[in-house]
Amino acid sequence: MSWVEHVVIAPFSYDFMQRAAIVGVFTAVVAGVLSCWLVLVGWSLLGDAVSHAVLPGVVVAYALGLPLAVGALVAAVLAVGLVGSVRERTTLREDAGIGVVFTGLFALGLVLLTVLPRGPHLNELLFGSVLGITQAALWQTLCCGAVALVALLLCRRVLTWWAFDATHARASGVNTTAVRWVLLGSLALVVVASVQAVGVILVVAMLITPGATAYLCTRRFHRMLLLAPLLAGGSALAGLLLSYHTNVSSGGAIVLAQSALFAVAFGVARLRGKPRG
Questions:
Q1: Least CB-packed of 34, 104, 155, 222 within 10 Å?
Q2: Which residues cross the membrane (predicted)?
Q3: pLDDT in tens, 222-260
Q4: Are the beta carbons of 87 and 73 closer than 8 angstroms?
Q5: Amino acid 204: pLDDT
Q6: Contact 106, 57 (CB under 8 A)
Q7: What gap in Å lies between CA 265 and CA 40, rounded to an integer?
Q8: Quick one: DSSP state of residue 121?
Q9: Which residues contact 162 (CB under 8 A, 6 or more apart)?
Q10: 20-265 CATH, one of 1.10.10.10, 3.40.50.2000, 3.40.50.1970, 1.10.3470.10
Q11: Under a CB-based contact definition with an 8 Å cutoff, are residues 186 and 22 in contact?
Q12: Residues 6 or more apart in contact with residue 9 via CB below 8 angstroms
């Protein structure tokens, strides 16, 4: 058996690695597409907020014997709604509302972990367990991710228009509120799809790093939309192989691979001149 067969091909002969590859690559690709708009609009903090805010929903769903995706989706929608309410009904800046909502919900999740008798393992929630994902969880993840991906692709032109110039889009008759909620809804679905793969804490890296890396590599947005998911999917495969051979956290390895690509892109940008900003 050659080195390539032993290191790259042989691990995927196992069913658990096949399921992990499907979930890991698919969620990474969908998150990579979404990350392009999040980076462009400047919603990195919002992605962080939603990813942390799903914790209480996941804990409650686990305790009740429900699919984790159901609890995560309810909590994500609640978080998005609360952030929107704080922004629209107070004079606080959006970042303040985000900080209050996501820390409050994340703290609620930690408290529920300690009081519920059938709480899940903390490490699995925080850092994911893609290598141990079940068939049922796989289908839940694929469904949530597919809905988000279809919505993003169908609305990609108006989303891009709004992201570059929301004022002009609004003046031209675009319902910018609806566009904003499409992006927020997609964010919630992608977080739900990704949380079982990389966990609550590391989801934000999948939502931001691919888009940020692609942003450093090209000045054309349509190229970003191709490059970001490509880099994300490749990182997912590399991270899974690293996790398999070294017995480290699979979610951490995936994010580490994405961070390594960002470091390379940043270094190349520095050599060519000042990085974009």
A1: 222
A2: 21-46, 58-84, 96-116, 136-159, 171-191, 197-217, 224-244, 250-269
A3: 899 999 999 999 999 999 999 888 988 888 889 899 999
A4: no
A5: 82
A6: no
A7: 17
A8: P
A9: 169, 174, 176, 179, 180
A10: 1.10.3470.10
A11: no
A12: none
DSSP one-letter code for 12: G
The confidence score (pLDDT) of residue 121 equals 63
Residue 172 has what DSSP assignment? T
* Nearest Cα to Cα of residue 251 among 190, 193, 203, 212: 203
Give dist(CA 166, CA 175) in Å, integer: 10
> Is pLDDT above 90 for 150?
yes
Nearest Cα residue to 170 out of 267, 178, 212: 178
State the alpha helices, DSSP H only, in the chain: 3-4, 15-41, 44-53, 55-64, 68-89, 94-115, 122-127, 135-154, 156-164, 166-171, 176-217, 221-246, 250-272
Q: Which residue has the tokens 């054309």?
A: 220
What's the whole-model pTM score?
0.85
CA distance 38 to 187: 9
Report the chain's mean pLDDT, rounded to a whole number. 84
pLDDT at residue 34 in the model: 94
List the domain boundaries for the chain. 20-265
In this predicted structure, what is the pLDDT of residue 274?
A: 53
pLDDT at 277: 52
Q: Which two tokens stand for residue 29?
A: 């690709």
List CB contacts of 204: < 8 A, sequence separation 6 or more: 44, 47, 48, 51
